[in-house]
Amino acid sequence: MKKIISIVLISVMLLSLMPFTAFAGGDEIELELDTKYEVWVGENVEIYRFTPTEDGWYKFYTEGDCDTYANLYNSNWDEIDFADDSYDDSNFILTYKLYSGYTYYLEVGAYVEETQVVKFNLFATETVGVEGAYISKEPDNMNCIIGYEYESIDLFGMEVTFTLSDGEKYLWSYNNGGNVLGFYVDYSIDSDGYGNYYVEVVCGEGYDRLMFDMVENPVESISVESMSAIELYENSSGYFSDEGYYHYQYAMPEDAKIRIKYIDGTESVVNYHDQPIDGFYFECDDEQYLNHWNVGENEFTIKYMGCTTTATVTILPCPYESVTLISAPTREYIYGDFSTGYVYDGDYVLCPDDLTGLSFELGYSDGTTEIIDEDNIDMEHIEIDGYMYEIGEYLVAGPGNVLVTLSYKGMDITYSVKVVENPIDSIEVLKAPDKHKYEDRYHADYTGMEIKVNFKDGTNETVVLTEENMTYELKGSLYCYVPVGDYKLSILRQFDLYSEKYYTTVVCLGVMTDYYGIEYTESREVESITKVENFAYNTDGMTICVEYKDGTEETLTYSPVDYYDYGDDMYEGFAYTENGITYFDTSLKSKDETSTVYTLYTLGKSTEVTVPNFKLGDVDGNGDITIMDATAIQLHIASISILTPDELSRADTDRNSNITIMDATLIQLFIAQLITEF
Q1: Is the pTM of this model over 0.85?
Q2: Domain total of the chain
Q3: Is residue 130 scored above 90 in pLDDT?
């Protein structure tokens, strides 16, 4: 049976946010652990000196309203352990194995605010600790490439069996992570000094080491197989450095292919953007800070696993002699609007990127001219006739006209945009959401929340949030917005580091109000994500099964929000649950000829999802693209035969996350050899 003691400590702290230790009365305190803890009181510190009579694991902790911490010292006053709660709890827990006949010192303190009364109970109990460790399952990949040791080592699949002080066994998995009975599992990769690498696992008194198989670099050389030309215009698509030279920014063409030659004589040709390749990445190094690029051909270096090759960037001279503005963009900007700018150091910075209505004339040296207007401008990709343009950011003091410069192919086009007064005076939250208590890992469901927007002209508009008018977005975190007249009102969750509490911010055109009527409680800790089904970027209905450490399970159904096709197929989504709204994100981990592995992160846990590779346009998945694939899309659109999530992924040939007749048309063009790829 565990034995327990309790000490009540009370004092007053007059300094704000400084470490402080409360004082206890008396010279000795009798503890029921077959020994005595003697109290020695020093300046602003309380230290318990004790000598255990039995070897064993002991847990020290406090209970109370204070944010406490503890330091454990040996008889030479060397610190051997430290415990602080961080943001997890207000009280420390310190567990350590102590040995009989040795003297220890326990220092207990508290972080308190001004005039706060320090009051907490100190407890000590015998407990169970980790005595031993054994790596019972090796990582899936035991090869460690010489020269790329840290890049090639992957601990995925490793399992460790820990032996507890009561004789029980505990199986820990690298894939799932977590602690062992509250003990942190520390794993690190290091060298023995002779060129060999190992993984070292430490938890409590448990320790084990596993050596990796050292292998030679499998790559002999790389070369550029093919790629479209990279052409930039003089003093365009870059910036002037502090040293005065122009630094060009470039992108590898989508069709860039690299040939990799291996030391075993085999070769492979891969797309540059299909990274990682065998777990490793291509890198580019242009060293423009040493060798400034000029008009003509310039080289940069492509690197992969110690091998290099070069590629060419051609800088073209500016083809124009003159530029004449015909019409400026028609967009008027609202001062303080967060959708078209941001606040920096108390000032509003405008990002005037709407070019609707812009037109200008370019004059060539041969006397010919060209008109650039909306038909040539692609604002989504920031391009004009396929070449990038640049627009700066502008510090705005208030409503008025702002002079804007657009740079294109080395020429500057200057025009004026109008910034008007913010029409909103204030925002009020009139009614709380229908539900206002959630686990702190989740976002609130704002359904039922009533918000009033007051305008400077004396009018106002009230909106009640419903599932129909709320739209969710992910920009680093999940937030929702609703239309209010011609404007967009956003509701997002914030975290206050000082109070360590969440609150809600309502914002429209830069005018905001903070709302504290939603309570967030401690979350259940997730044990594992046991199943992922219907994993696809462009369809609703992906489900995951979550197992919590309290033994409960929950099945969550997710909806997609944003998809990013940058060669890594990263996408994000969210799900409604009874505990609130949670979101996920995924990113590419690895890819081979047969399957793609994604890392899915949600609820504080990551898991691996393996998706069989498919051929875009091969809707029925039989390996060939035929007229039957186009027919399957047409039947789906007509609601005669609904496609499965996997079939929908293969059917989305234009990659716009919607299945339309255009997808079927593209397949027909492909079959007729009028196009060669989607």
Answers
A1: no
A2: 7
A3: yes
